[in-house]
Design goal:
about 325 residues, alpha/beta, Rossmann fold, UDP-galactose 4-epimerase, domain 1, 2 domains, seven-stranded parallel beta sheet, three-stranded mixed beta sheet, 14 strands, about 40% helix, globular, binds nicotinamide-adenine-dinucleotide, NAD(P)-bd_dom_sf, Epimerase_deHydtase, UDP-glucose 4-epimerase, isomerase
């Protein structure tokens, strides 16, 4: 098998490339480098610089490298930006996916893994979110992920492609400092950013119906997430008749909730900067609780997260210090 990893120079893509390579898979990466960093990729992995919107390039890459499976991570991922620029998000995330699926079908590739997100669920009022929980995304970004899943399944049925959609929960941490997320879009880097600026970390709302009043989330270590991709790729590769395994959509989380206050306490311990936090009003659209049921991933992929939240914060802090020293 040869796997093409789109978005392979990104934060998660580089972890996937590394985990799959270490497990003995042959991989190559495609990335337009709009947010990617080539140095993140392990040595020896070919990197094609180009876009998932470039159908001719995709056809050439799939043929030249005799690609037999695709892991598609390339996408824009900022919720706020997607609210301001919805057409761009639909064009790039969904247009890029449609172009890629056409190339995949044309090249006879029969295995496809898609990066989806817990953003597809929106704000459900349940203790544990299962894959059957109704989807109601609250941003154009989340919509592109949900519509992306529909497109992946439809193309899979039409062209005999086996597919897995992975709905990631809150990704954090790094397998090595140089692989860390350099963006400041998720809560852990946002808190590091505040501390580095000598500002108090903020909590948006402490009057939610949760044990300590702050929002509860399910954090997943990016190295565990990368292993989930490997498990998905292996599941697809193990199908004796490609195109007969159908589709699987699965949550990737730990199944354990951590409150924002608990996370900030942990960050204070790890960074040695336990200054008091600022409590600000709730932000519109924040769900009180979003925690995955991780049961289906265990049964269908044989995958369970192994790393805890402290390991996520410690590894993310090492990465932050490397990039922001
Ligand atoms: N980070 C998270 O918390 C999170 C959570 C849920 C889902 N996801 C999804 O995981 C995927 C990877 O996210 P990430 O955090 O690694 O983001 P990232 O921005 O670090 O990685 C995305 C990579 O894709 C590349 N890219 C973007 N558009 C492209 C295009 N049209 N053609 C080729 N390359 C393109 C970028 O240069 C970048 O290297 C995305 O699909 C994202 O929506 C991320």
């Amino acid at each position: 098998m040869t796997w093409l990893i789109t978005g392979g120079a990104g934060y998660i893509g580089a972890h996937v490339a590394r985990a799959m390579t270490e497990a003995g898979e042959r991989v190559l990466a495609l990335d337009d480098l709009s947010a990617g960093v080539p140095a993140r990729l392990p040595e020896g992995i070919p990197l094609v610089q180009g876009s998932s919107l470039d159908g001719e390039l995709l056809k050439r890459v799939l043929a030249e490298h005799a690609v037999t499976g695709v892991v598609h991570l390339a996408a824009r991922k900022q919720v706020g930006e997607s609210v301001a620029q919805p057409t761009r998000y639909y064009q790039e995330n969904l247009g890029g996916l449609a172009t890629l699926l056409d190339a995949v079908a044309g090249a006879g590739v029969r295995r496809f893994v898609f990066s989806s997100s817990a953003a597809v669920y929106g704000n459900p009022d349940v203790d544990l979110i299962t894959e059957d929980t109704p989807c109601a995304p609250m941003s154009p970004y989340g919509e592109t992920k949900l519509a992306g899943e529909w497109l992946v399944r439809a193309a899979g049925r039409a062209h005999g492609i086996d597919t897995v959609c992975l709905r990631y929960f809150n990704v954090a941490g790094a397998a090595a400092p140089e692989l860390a997320d350099t963006g400041v879009f998720n809560v852990v880097p946002m808190v590091f950013d505040r501390l580095t600026r000598d500002e108090a970390p903020r909590i948006f709302g402490d009057d939610y119906p949760t044990p300590d009043g702050t929002c509860v989330r399910d954090y997943i270590h990016v190295a565990d997430l990368a292993e989930a991709h490997l498990a998905a790729a292996r599941r697809l590769a193990s199908s004796e008749t490609p195109g007969s395994a159908g589709d699987l959509t699965v949550n990737i989380g730990r199944g354990e909730g951590v409150s924002v206050r608990e996370l900030l306490t942990l960050i204070g311990e790890v960074t040695g900067d336990g200054r008091p936090v600022l409590v600000e009003p709730r932000r519109p659209g924040d769900a009180p609780r979003a925690v995955a049921s991780a049961a289906l991933a265990a049964t269908e992929l044989g995958w369970t997260a192994r790393r805890g939240v402290r390991e996520m914060v410690e590894s993310a802090w090492q990465g932050w210090q490397l990039h922001h020293a």
